[in-house]
Design a protein that fits this description.
The protein has 425 residues and is mainly α. The termini are far apart. A two-stranded parallel ribbon has the order 1-2. The chain has a two-stranded antiparallel sheet with strand order 3-4. It is 71% helix and 3% strand. The protein contains eleven helices and four strands. It has one domain: Outer membrane efflux proteins (OEP), CATH 1.20.1600. It is elongated.
Length: 425
């Protein structure tokens, strides 16, 4: 017969109880925080590693300028030094634009993640409601068939059961999609270790009546304003100026057969706009600046080569502006397309919800064929409306990113137009 050591046995029980208590304490402490989009953006600014990396790049550029300014006297006598100082100053402006671009891009990621959670929860709730309706009607029909079976009812029951299986599959997809969306949002604001468990406080999306505002003239105005302030344009413009200064720097070195360029001690952190695509998703190819760390040859040859790189830099700036104009116009067209569907579905949304609610509350109404078809169509249209609302919000947030806030409803940056579609003067 087995014997337990009383002390060790109760010690184990005590330790297990203690750990269970700690475990319960840890679980109770990890409460999901409900936050607004503004709060999510604040968390992003404080915690996101991409923003920290861009800030580090800016500090590096600033240190680089101080390094040039603090060189020993004999180094400062180098004929190219005044150009290196100008290039370093421009390099800081490139890094600063890079930081602002990173904040803008990451803000869009946070907004999209936030809206995706709201949308996923709507789809999860809708699919659960559909499951409840189907389940009630299956039970009601089975009760009816227990009293009297008919071939028509047997066929109807099989259809209901097949619909229930399909709805259960969609519900499981909605549940996992909701959890994935929450995980994405958490990472976009800085990661779970830093921010804990979070989810949106909102259950639906704001409504913006913008179609009357989006005239061709207004869109072209937004295009040209964006081309002036977009961070990639600023970076390409400053990079082009740095390359032009390299021509003067090479001219200053008269007798040196091998002369360093700004690229020997700096990195512009220049990322071109756009990614080349082919086929149905064609996008024009972006081009980048070029500059080796040193140029070799007689002064005229080095200057000629530096000029060629400067000419390429000017072409990069022009190409960047053209790509941004295309991107802004396309983004507005996507919003216009989505808003047409949104406005049409918004008109019938109250009726769709009424249909679903009535069928949910009175399951016996669902037992005739007409109501079954009505229920199926109403459920699909309501799901499509939820998706259209999400796409609309995604388009609006992306337009704020693409236009660098020139066009904004206040999702990721201060609004430039009001909710009723009127422009803020």
């Amino acid at each position: 017969m087995l014997k337990f050591n009383r002390i060790s046995f109760f010690s184990v029980i005590g330790i297990a109880t203690l750990f269970a208590g700690f475990s319960g304490f840890a679980k109770s402490e990890e409460v999901t925080k409900k936050i607004t989009l503004s709060e999510a953006l604040e968390l992003m600014n404080a915690n996101h590693p991409r923003i920290h990396a861009a800030e580090a790049s800016l500090r590096g550029s600033e240190a680089g300028l101080r390094g040039v300014q603090n060189l020993p006297l004999f180094a400062k006598l180098s004929p190219d030094m005044k150009y290196r100082k100008q290039q370093s100053t421009l390099g800081i402006e490139v890094a600063d634009a890079g930081l602002r671009q990173e904040i803008r891009d990451t803000s869009y990621g946070v907004a999209r993640g936030y809206f995706l959670v709201v949308y996923s929860k709507q789809q999860q709730d809708l699919s659960k409601q559909v499951l409840d309706i189907l389940g009630k009607n299956i039970k009601a029909l089975e009760l009816k068939m227990a009293l009297k079976k008919t071939p028509e009812d047997e066929i109807k029951l099989q259809k209901l059961k097949l619909g229930f299986v399909e709805a259960k599959h969609k519900n499981s997809l909605a549940v996992t999609g909701y959890e994935r969306a929450k995980a994405l949002l958490t990472e976009e604001v800085g990661g779970r270790k830093k921010v804990g468990l979070i989810e949106p406080i909102e259950k639906d999306f704001a409504s913006y009546e913008l179609l009357g505002l989006l005239t061709p003239e207004f869109i072209e105005e937004m295009v040209e304003k964006t081309v002036v302030i977009r961070e990639e344009v600023i970076k390409s413009s400053k990079a082009s100026q740095i390359l032009a200064l390299e021509v003067n720097a090479q001219k200053s070195a008269r007798f040196n057969p091998k002369f360093r360029t700004f690229a020997s001690g700096s990195d512009l952190h220049y990322i071109p706009i756009g990614v080349q695509g082919r086929g149905e998703n064609f996008t024009p190819e972006a081009i980048t600046i070029e500059m080796p760390s040193s140029l070799v040859g007689k002064k005229n040859d080095r200057v000629a080569r530096a000029q060629a790189f400067a000419d390429r830099g000017a072409a990069v700036e022009e190409s960047t502006k053209n790509l941004i104009r295309l991107e802004v116009r396309n983004a507005f067209q996507l919003l216009l397309e989505t808003r047409i569907s949104y406005n049409e579905l918004k008109k019938v949304e109250p009726e769709l919800k009424k249909i679903i609610t009535e069928l949910h509350d009175t399951s016996l109404k669902f037992l005739n064929t007409d109501n079954a078809e009505l229920f199926e169509k109403a459920g699909k249209m309501l799901g499509n409306y939820n998706h259209t609302k999400f796409i609309t919000m995604d388009n609006l947030a992306d337009l704020e990113r693409i236009t660098s806030g020139t066009f904004s409803v206040g999702l990721t940056c201060p609004a430039t137009i009001t909710n009723d579609g009127k422009r803020i003067k």
